[in-house]
Amino acid sequence: MINIKERRWYQRIMNSGMLYIVLLIMFIMILYPLAMVFLQSLFPDILAGSLKGFLSPFIQVFKSEGLLTVIINTILWGIAVTIGCVIVGIPCGFILAKTDMPGKGIIRVIYAIPYMTPPYVGALAWILFIQEKGFLEEMLSGHLPGFVQELFFSFWGLTFIMVLFLYPFTALGIEAGLRALPSNFENSARVLGANRKALLRRIVIPLLLPVILNTGLLVFLQTVSNFGVPATLGSRARYPIITAEIYNLISSWPINIPLSTALSGILVAMALAIMYISERVLKKKDYIPEATGCRFYFYTFYLFGRHTLWNHGPGFPCQDLGWRIFQPE
Q1: What is the DSSP secondary-structure string of 15-56?
Q2: Same domain (yes/no): 123, 162
Q3: What span, in angstroms and rounded, lies between the C-alpha atoms of 319 and 324?
Q4: Which residues contact 51 (CB under 8 A, 6 or more apart)?
Q5: pTM
Q6: Which domain-ending residue is among 12, 30, 54?
Q7: Which pLDDT tens digit goes with each residue over 3-35?
Q8: Is there a domain that residue 82 lies in?
Q9: What is the largest CA-CA distance in the chain?
């Protein structure tokens, strides 16, 4: 609750007009420039006081075959990176949450490195490693197959680098989701005879669907808005992306700000559409269960210790009782 002193302090600010002054400053310094940039994508000559050419930059985008190719390339790249991160991140998150693998704390620290390292640094490192007369070719004494460089300097190389830098988002999200799941569903399924595949397919994965969708959404948005990797590797891979194209439009003569802002608007609309679809999918069903009953810890794979699925933790007495009741004679 807000005490009397805090309420009086807030009322003084409101009465003195300081709040309105702060909002005015924010509008002038942040909202007004962004609004003017966006309006240029709707009215190209608005700075000259003319409202002619309404939506002409967007019409130009969709009439230009090259710009349509850029938009399609960006969408396909974002989808490919998202799928790759989900494929790699789910097993990694499962290992962190459900196995006794040693050194998991160190692995979590390693997963935090992409948060602190720009992807373009990794792109430059991989270019130096795989390019012609690069480190890998020197290590192999010049016997590097040509298809390796062709594959790297292509759509697949762009996807590979982004997956390497973004799959920790998925892995850590899956780990947190697995640890947050209430165990009563797992316990009931195991006691009633569900095998490991049925448990994953019918209980664990459906309950993890919000985590998978949200981390996938984050990865997709991070990918399509990334500039470093397309600018570093995209030109050599001959795979244009929206962010690199926007940079070319505002840095090369003739400068075309309306067209670049139209591409930016399409990028924002793309992100909003993906977020809306994700929200619609999650609202169709309530995936968040309530954590009821005692928590068990038997669903752990002992890869480096006891080779058993039964971890005699705090819930073992209840677990053993349930197993004996449903155990066939």
Answers
A1: HHTHHHHHHHHHIIIIIHHHHHHHHHHH-TTGGGT---STTH
A2: yes
A3: 9
A4: 43, 45
A5: 0.73
A6: 54
A7: 555 556 666 655 666 777 877 887 788 777 777
A8: yes
A9: 88
